[in-house]
């Protein structure tokens, strides 16, 4: 008797526009990782160091996303789940960095912090514009969009923190921004993992529905 159950559809042909957007975002994020790594060391800014780590993580995520384009739903979701986990872990790394900065008690250099923050904001807005059209795709696309969105919010916060540091001479604005970025990382990672797990279950059910 022929099986009439539904199977997982064949993987879609990779979207060339999405592939191009990923390559652009990957290059921009890696360059900004280097810029903020050096700038954060020079300015003694926790927020810039956290953002540098975020840029590096995003560059890796975009590279992984490129690698799984055209793969099955299960494997795309599995990779997205891993990326969501990395996003959440990044949040906890930032929290550890905040604690370290607080113990050291050295206020960041506001001018350098603000200048690099503005440059990073422009870079992430460019990425967000290219990736906006793919925000409602599968968990892999969603993870890419959330990374870009969180970066724009984080960079805007870095700029405000630089203004706060310049006006008060305190390190508290820098620490507050780092905490905000940590929360974005944890919550964004949770959203990606939740959707990815749903897709993995859906794919597994489609594969076993005939057994």
UniProtKB/TrEMBL annotation:
Gene Ontology cellular component annotations, sorted alphabetically: plasma membrane
Organism of provenance: Acinetobacter gandensis
Keywords, in A-Z order: Ion transport, Membrane, Transmembrane, Transmembrane helix, Transport, Zinc, Zinc transport
Protein localization: Membrane
Keyword RNA-binding attributed: no
InterPro entries, sorted: Cation_efflux_TM, Cation_efflux_TMD_sf, CDF/SLC30A
One Gene Ontology molecular-function label: zinc ion transmembrane transporter activity
Record field: transmembrane: 21-43, 55-75, 84-104, 110-132, 152-169, 175-193
Residue ranges of coiled coil: none
Name by which UniProt lists this protein: Cobalt transporter
Pfam families: Cation_efflux (PF01545)
Gene3D superfamilies (UniProt xref): Cation efflux protein transmembrane domain
């Amino acid at each position: 008797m022929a099986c009439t159950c539904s199977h997982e559809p064949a993987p879609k042909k990779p979207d060339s526009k999405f592939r191009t957007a990923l390559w652009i975002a990957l290059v921009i994020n890696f360059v900004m990782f280097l810029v903020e790594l050096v700038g954060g060391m020079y300015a003694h800014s926790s927020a810039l160091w956290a953002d540098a780590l975020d840029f590096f993580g995003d560059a890796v995520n975009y590279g992984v996303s490129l690698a799984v384009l055209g793969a099955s739903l299960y494997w795309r979701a599995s990779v997205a789940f891993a990326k969501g986990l990395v996003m959440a872990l990044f949040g906890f790394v930032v929290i550890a960095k905040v604690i370290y900065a607080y113990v050291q008690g050295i206020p960041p250099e506001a001018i350098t912090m603000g200048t690099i923050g503005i440059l990073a904001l422009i870079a992430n807005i460019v990425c967000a514009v290219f990736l906006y059209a793919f925000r409602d795709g599968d968990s892999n696309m969603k993870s890419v969009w959330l990374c870009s969105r969180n970066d724009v919010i984080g960079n805007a916060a870095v700029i405000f923190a630089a203004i706060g540091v310049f006006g008060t001479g305190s390190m508290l604005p820098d620490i507050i921004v780092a905490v905000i970025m940590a929360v974005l990382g944890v919550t964004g990672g949770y959203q990606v993992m939740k959707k990815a797990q749903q897709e993995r279950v859906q794919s597994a059910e489609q594969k076993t529905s005939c057994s």
